[in-house]
């Protein structure tokens, strides 16, 4: 029950976070957006872990494993996820990203020996089919959030790469969490690793794209300023980024790790993939435009798959 409730909570956090993120991502780009939000979340998690005494549950090996999990699940996964978000919009993005559920279930079976029974296999198939239906029968909405920017194929492909990164990150973290690692401390290691990596990526990008040096070190000053305060960042966007980070990364990731500590990785991933179902009424409420029947049909099939997995 703890694992199931934690996974459902993560799904809710990710659905709401996806809606908050769409504006900042399209203004700042995925790398700058992730750099700012992960820095905020890493700071909060480091403080929380220190105050709660969670560091004592991690040894060097566990910390390195979680760092690798963060590189795949957050750096690779989030770079791809938010790149595709800016191209596809939140509904399509979250629906496609739900493919991480069957991928995690298959990897858990292959690498961790978590057996898949007949009902689980059927449930995974239904979840996958639901994702395909929701993408194929996409909405004809004209709201700006639903607009496709650039190639649809590229957006879908990169979003699937994000799903693979998330699945791999979860599988790598699973043994550490099952051994009793503190979820907040584990999230702190993963997020801090990712924040440092995005900062390094941002610094390299700024150095390559910098203008000619000016007297008095002006170029360095501009690069440093642009690294921590990206061009286009406003107080409103900062609040949106902080909200997305604390909700989607801080709370959502911690809940996912709680689920992995107490339950089957495939089941936890599948329940957390309910984000497509949760985001549809959210978009309807916020935009006033009903999602298409195809989106609802895909979500319904995915829910049926989840029901089979949970009740296997």
Q: How many separate structural domains?
A: 1
**SSE run:** HHHHHHHHHHHHH
Q: What percent of residues are in strands?
A: under 5%
Helix content: over 70%
Compute the separation of the termini in Å. Answer: 14 Å
Total number of beta strands: 0
Q: If you compute it from the alpha carbons, what radius of gyration comes out, rounded to the nearest whole angstrom?
A: 19 Å
Overall geometric form? globular
The overall average pLDDT, rounded, is 82
H/I helix tally = 13
Extract low-pLDDT stretches: 211-216
**Biggest pleated-sheet summary:** none
Structural class: mainly alpha
Overview of the molecule:
- This protein has 312 residues and is mainly α.
- It has one domain (2-206, 219-310).
- The protein is built from 13 helices and no strands.
- The chain has helices at residues 2-28, 30-52, 60-88, 90-97, 100-112, 118-136, 152-178, 183-209, 218-228, 235-262, 265-272, 275-287, 293-310.
- The two termini are 14 Å apart.
Q: What's this entry about, in short?
A:
The chain is mostly helical.
Structure characteristics:
13 helices; 312 residues; globular; mainly alpha
Helices and strands in order, then pairings?
Layout lengths: L1 H27 L1 H23 L7 H29 L1 H8 L2 H13 L5 H19 L15 H27 L4 H27 L8 H11 L6 H28 L2 H8 L2 H13 L5 H18 L2
Helix pairs in contact: 1-2, 1-3, 1-10, 1-11, 1-12, 2-8, 2-10, 3-4, 3-7, 3-8, 4-12, 5-7, 5-11, 6-13, 7-10, 8-9, 8-10
